[in-house]
């Protein structure tokens, strides 16, 4: 539904730090994205040539940020309008709960294209809570967790 170029206009993560390739589907409740950056040698999250599974948290958080931007734009006309929005409010990860890692590394090409799902449990002017899952192309979960995101400065 959305390309990488459209994603880059909606989240503050730019260049190689934008880990998502495209949006497969989204609704007011959740977003499903695809990513292949986990196998890129230039992935900025790699350490000692490897991409640890813990880095999957960033994939989930980027999907949540993108979902927030799309939902804010949805009230004004959906993805087309969202593509013209300014960046989301500054935010930070306030809490991470229930993190489960099912693999040690994400950089295995055998995983195929990653499928990242972020579902909003709570959205308010001060922040949001999202459940996220990063899965292999074959739908095998690689990690999942729940993130509390606090907005800094201005309300969403």
Mean pLDDT: 90
CATH topology: Thiol Ester Dehydrase, Chain A
Distance between the termini: 24 Å
> Nearest-angstrom radius of gyration?
15 Å
- Helix residue percentage: 10-25%
Poorly predicted runs: none
Order of helices and strands: HEEHHEEEE
What's the structural domain tally?
1
Determine the number of helices (DSSP H or I, runs of at least 4 residues): 3
Structural class: alpha+beta
CATH architecture tag: Roll
> How would you name the CATH homologous superfamily?
Hotdog Thioesterase
Q: What is the 3D shape?
A: globular
Order the strands across the largest sheet as they lie in space: 1-2-4-5-6-3
How large is the share of residues in beta strands? Answer: 25-35%
What is the CATH top level name? Alpha Beta
Largest sheet: 6 strands, antiparallel
- Compute the number of strand runs: 6
Explain this structure.
The protein has three helices and six strands; from the N terminus they run αββααββββ. It is α+β, with helices and mostly antiparallel strands and 156 residues long. It has helices at residues 4-8, 56-74, 78-82; strands spanning 22-26, 30-35, 91-101, 114-124, 127-135, 141-151. Strands 1-2-4-5-6-3 form a six-stranded antiparallel sheet, with helices on one face. It has a single domain (4-151), classed as Hotdog Thioesterase (Thiol Ester Dehydrase, Chain A).
How is the secondary structure organized here?
Elements: H1 4-8, E1 22-26, E2 30-35, H2 56-74, H3 78-82, E3 91-101, E4 114-124, E5 127-135, E6 141-151
Antiparallel strand pairs: 1-2, 2-4, 3-6, 4-5, 5-6
